[in-house]
């Protein structure tokens, strides 16, 4: 029997279950078929292993610290070219981390300001970045603003609450944040 006469096996792709419509080039498929045919029972078991015990991916989320030191709010100016305005200190929330811990840690790491979370303001999927954001109202504890992360930020400063919309356009501020700032005043 020649290779052309041989029945075509169901393709097992490198991309696996994530892209079942993708088939490897014939030469690659031939190598995969050969490897499967010569595999030990233990190797075959691993090859056919289920993904049921794999932890699913978690969506990216961020914690934003709205640090209040009356009459001011702490802001950072990101270095990214697409960021034309200032923003609240923020950090990515990794699995096994809480938004509260990330907000406090990142605020200190980026700005030199030590703060404590007073409560959650709210959460949303950011309309521009698509990142799930948790907004936390934080109380100033100690420190002077300094740019401790010059790779990420251009500047750090306290901004008078009344001038906040001069630094961040009002249509880009999550409305409950404005309400929380007013209540904290």
UniProtKB/TrEMBL annotation:
All residue ranges annotated as the Nudix hydrolase domain in the record: 56-182
Region: Disordered, residue numbers: 1-24
InterPro entries named in the record: NUDIX_hydrolase-like_dom_sf (IPR015797), NUDIX_hydrolase_dom (IPR000086)
Cross-referenced PROSITE patterns: NUDIX
One function term, GO molecular function aspect: hydrolase activity
Cofactor(s) recorded in Swiss-Prot or TrEMBL: Mg(2+)
Protein name: NUDIX hydrolase
């Amino acid at each position: 029997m020649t290779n052309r006469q041989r029945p075509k096996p169901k393709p097992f792709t490198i991309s696996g279950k994530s892209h079942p419509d993708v088939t490897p080039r014939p030469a690659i498929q031939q190598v995969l078929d050969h490897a499967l045919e010569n595999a030990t029972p233990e190797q075959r078991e691993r090859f056919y292993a289920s993904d049921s015990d794999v932890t699913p991916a978690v969506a990216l989320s961020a914690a934003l610290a709205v640090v209040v030191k009356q009459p001011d709010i702490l802001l950072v100016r990101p270095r990214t070219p697409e960021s034309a305005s200032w923003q609240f200190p923020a950090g990515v929330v990794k699995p096994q981390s809480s938004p509260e811990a990330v907000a406090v840690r990142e605020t200190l790491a980026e700005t030199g300001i030590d703060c404590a979370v007073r409560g959650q303001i709210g959460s949303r999927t950011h309309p521009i970045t698509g990142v799930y954001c948790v907004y936390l109202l934080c109380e100033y504890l100690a420190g002077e603003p300094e740019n401790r992360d010059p790779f990420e930020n251009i500047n750090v400063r306290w901004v008078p609450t009344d001038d906040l919309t001069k630094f961040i356009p009002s249509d880009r501020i999550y409305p409950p944040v404005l309400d929380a700032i007013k209540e904290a005043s």
